[in-house]
Amino acid sequence: xxxxxxxxxxxxxxxxxxxxxxxxxxxxxxxxxxxxxxxxxxxxxxxxxxxxxxxxxxxxxxxxxxxxxxxxxxxxxxxxxxxxxxxxxxxxxxxxxxxxxxxxxxxxxxxxxxxxxxxxxxxxxxxxxxxxxxxxxxxxxxxxxxxxxxxxxxxxxxxxxxxxxxxxxxxxxxxxxxxxxxxxxxxxxxxxxxxxxxxx
Length: 200
Fold this sequence. Notes:
Elements: H1 2-12, H2 16-28, H3 32-36, E1 43-44, E2 49-52, E3 55-57, E4 60-62, E5 70-73, H4 76-87, E6 97-98, E7 101-102, H5 105-112, H6 114-120, H7 130-141, H8 146-153, H9 158-162, H10 169-183, H11 188-198
Antiparallel strand pairs: 1-2, 2-5, 3-4, 6-7
Helix pairs in contact: 1-2, 2-7
């Protein structure tokens, strides 16, 4: 998340709202159109959740891409941002808005000079949509099962979710250890170590 904060801070220097837009994308996994369609009435800070019920697409407001509403958990850093945004807005007002109107994603990209900004930050080619991938990958690495991740992310099937499930050597080692523990197997390296220790 340090890399995300680097990009968010650069955007916030242009407009603080832009920084929050980037941070929430990486913390909630919402698509750009879902973020710009969020309203205070969708946020339940007491329950630490938000409800994705609509999305902006091609200048119009409609259903989310999945066609179904979904509930997303709100972690503490996201709750602080959402608390700030909801406090100054009416229940049906868009969170990412100003007196002049709501935030349009295309305008955001132009205002911050997204392509050059991410290149200068050391992440050439990074898309805003990749911030959604940061959230989804984080959930998987935290041990949340794929079925739950699919539901929270609003994927139509598990194949889409599985694309974010990158098996690193560390994950494979952890999986092997869990399987060995379940089977009651003593790993060879421990067995060999025990044998050497008994000869001293």
